[in-house]
Design a protein that fits this description.
The protein has 190 residues and is α/β, with parallel strands linked by helices. 32% of the residues lie in helices and 24% in strands. The chain is built from six helices and nine strands. A seven-stranded mixed sheet has the order 1-4-3-2-5-9-6, sandwiched between helices. A two-stranded antiparallel sheet has the order 7-8. β3, α2 and β4 form a beta-alpha-beta unit.
Length: 190
């Protein structure tokens, strides 16, 4: 793992239920809205970990201003000393997670206000489940909705092997992108 600089760290020592992790690179135009969408969740027992992948735009400045503006102690921001491949930055973001559940977001993703609450409830209600997924809307860079998907299907518990088989038969990932999923930290570690 490359060296990192933790330049804004004011998180309380208690462990959160959920870690929302945002691996960011040159994301200055999206971060305010994405982080506000996390801060405005109905479920509030979360920490937000943002890992700036040595951005060359105003991402560091936007993050500093956001911390100053919000004063939210649940937000921890890290900056890689050097740019690493995107998958490595995702793994770095995950490595900072302290929550029992893990939610990844791209810097331009906007969770619905009840996203964390609903996914935490699904995992709490189904102790054998490794992850919770849901419907998602795909929009372009101008915010125009392109299409929506309903995810795996109706609310319920789905067996992993059967879900994988359905993905293969459908020729697509019916579970959803990593950002539409919340994982148990133990499943992620495994």
């Amino acid at each position: 793992m490359p060296p990192q600089i933790e330049y804004l760290s004011r998180c309380d020592p208690g462990l959160p239920v959920v870690t929302v992790a945002i691996p960011a690179y040159n994301a200055s135009r999206y971060l305010d809205e994405t982080i506000d969408a996390v801060r405005n969740q109905g479920f509030t027992d979360w920490e937000l970990v943002v890992v700036d992948n040595a951005s060359t735009d105003d991402t560091p400045l936007v993050l500093e201003r956001l911390i100053a503006r919000t004063g939210d102690s649940r937000i921890r921001v890290f900056r890689n000393a050097l740019t690493v491949p995107a998958p490595d930055n995702w793994n770095i973001a995950i490595s900072h997670a302290r929550g029992r559940y893990l939610k990844l977001l791209c810097a331009d993703d906007l969770p619905t206000p009840d996203c964390l609450e609903r996914q935490v409830a699904a995992l709490n209600d189904n102790p054998s489940a490794s992850l919770a997924s849901g419907a998602r809307m795909i929009s372009n860079s101008r915010g125009h909705r392109l299409f929506a998907t309903n995810g795996i299907g109706p609310t319920g518990l789905y067996a992993g092997q059967e879900t994988i088989r359905r993905c293969i038969l459908a020729g697509t990932d019916i579970i959803g992108e990593p950002v539409s999923v919340m994982w148990r930290r133990t499943a992620m570690d495994d």
